């Protein structure tokens, strides 16, 4: 079992769910039934590595509170079960994404001919700009 799998399992076990009334269209049913799910997870309880935590915090954005809780609200579907599954899938995606390190950026290398062409172009542009200005009559 990888680190990501363990973290997801811990997160899904530690997540707290509450059901709230969904907003938007739905007629009388939307006012009677609490189908939207609000999922809360204390990220500090997961004991993530610092770089994974930083990536998770960046990915969560404003869904992460100052107290270190991720709050996800799922209200896409009409049933509690579907919204609950949706919230859990989104949480799993966030955590798995945090475990994927970004690819290192390879520096571009410019050869001598490319450098000379760049300098030539810069000089010609500078000459064009130097020739601008007031015309002496």
UniProtKB/TrEMBL annotation:
GO terms for biological process: rescue of stalled ribosome. GO terms for molecular function: peptidyl-tRNA hydrolase activity; ribosome binding; translation release factor activity. Its EC number is 3.1.1.29. Pfam families: RF-1 (PF00472). Residues 16-132 form the Prokaryotic-type class I peptide chain release factors domain. This is Alternative ribosome rescue aminoacyl-tRNA hydrolase ArfB. It comes from the Bacteria. Keywords: Hydrolase. It comes from Tsuneonella litorea. InterPro entries: Pep_chain_release_fac_I (IPR000352). SUPFAM superfamilies: Peptidyl-tRNA hydrolase domain-like. NCBIfam families: PRK09256.1.
């Amino acid at each position: 079992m990888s680190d990501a799998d363990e973290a997801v399992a811990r997160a899904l076990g530690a997540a707290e769910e509450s059901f709230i009334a969904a907003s938007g269209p739905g007629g009388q049913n939307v006012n009677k039934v609490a189908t939207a799910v609000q999922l809360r997870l204390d990220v500090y309880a997961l004991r993530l590595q610092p770089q994974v935590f930083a990536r998770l915090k960046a990915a969560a954005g404003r869904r992460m509170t100052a107290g270190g809780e991720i709050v996800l609200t799922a209200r896409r579907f009409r049933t509690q079960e579907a919204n609950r599954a949706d919230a859990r899938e989104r949480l799993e995606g966030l955590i798995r994404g945090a475990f994927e390190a970004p690819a290192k950026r390879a520096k571009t290398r410019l050869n001598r001919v490319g450098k000379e062409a760049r300098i030539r172009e810069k000089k010609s542009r500078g000459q064009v700009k130097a020739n601008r200005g007031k015309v002496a009559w």
